[in-house]
Write a structure and sequence with these properties.
This protein has 75 residues and is mainly β. The chain has no helices and six strands.
Length: 75
């Protein structure tokens, strides 16, 4: 499961257990982080911006012919 957190962090977890107030799982990449126990990552639902099944997030790559957001038209 891929979890996007407030502040821009993204955590990819496996073997996720959903509890009443928090979720816990094993990080797919990296080592133990804050809020962990024996390598397990746990977080509260209030910090989650988005969550989806699956592995690592797919980066968004802009089409070279597409102007950047906020760019002036015809510039």
């Amino acid at each position: 499961m891929t979890v996007e957190l407030r502040g821009g962090h993204v955590v990819v977890l496996r073997d996720v257990v959903l509890r009443a107030r928090k979720y816990c799982g094993m990080p797919v990449t990296g080592g133990p982080r804050e809020g962990t126990s024996a390598g397990q990552y746990c977080g509260g639902y209030a910090d989650v911006v988005a969550a989806r099944p699956g592995g690592a997030p797919t980066p968004m790559i802009a089409d070279p012919g597409t102007p950047a957001p906020g760019a002036a038209k015809g510039a």
